[in-house]
């Protein structure tokens, strides 16, 4: 098992983030994970480590997105009320 360099890991995030914007699946679901697995296995990481890593990255992204959900709902309902008052 070879240890990936810091530069490899630093470039991996932006490279895989591109797949979030490919209009094949919602938020690049599956594509981004496949990109992580592909890149990690090409730099020497075994599949048994690459796949859970990719899934943990997705879970982390979803968790941080969920933190902003309550304020978004609160603001958007206020926005809808103000639009109804204007009409």
Question: In terms of topology, how is this protein built?
Answer:
Layout (H helix, E strand, L loop, with lengths): L5 H12 L13 H12 L4 H21 L1 H18 L1
Helix pairs in contact: 1-2, 2-3
Span between termini: 65 Å
Strand content: under 5%
Unreliable stretches: none
The oligomeric state of the chains shown is single chain
Secondary structural class? mainly alpha
In round numbers, the mean pLDDT is 83
Radius of gyration: 18 Å
Give the CA-based shape.
elongated
Characterize the largest beta sheet: strand count, sense, and whether it forms a barrel. none
What is the count of DSSP helices, taking H or I runs of 4+ residues? 4
The arrangement of helices and strands along the chain is: HHHH
Q: Supply the number of structural domains.
A: 1
Question: Explain this structure to me?
Answer:
The protein has 87 residues and is an all-alpha fold. It is built from four helices and no strands. Helix 1 runs antiparallel to helix 2 and helix 2 packs across helix 3.
Provide tags for this entry:
mainly alpha; 87 residues; 4 helices; elongated
Give a brief outline of the structure.
The protein has 87 residues and is mainly α.
């Amino acid at each position: 098992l070879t240890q990936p360099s810091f530069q490899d890991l630093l470039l991996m995030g932006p490279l895989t983030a591109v797949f979030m914007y490919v209009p094949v699946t919602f938020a690049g679901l599956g594509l981004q994970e496949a990109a992580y697995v592909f890149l990690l296995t090409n730099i020497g990481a075994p599949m048994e480590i690459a796949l859970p890593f990719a899934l943990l990255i997705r879970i982390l992204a979803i968790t941080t997105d969920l933190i902003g959900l309550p304020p978004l709902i609160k603001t958007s309902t206020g926005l809808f009320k103000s639009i109804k008052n204007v009409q």
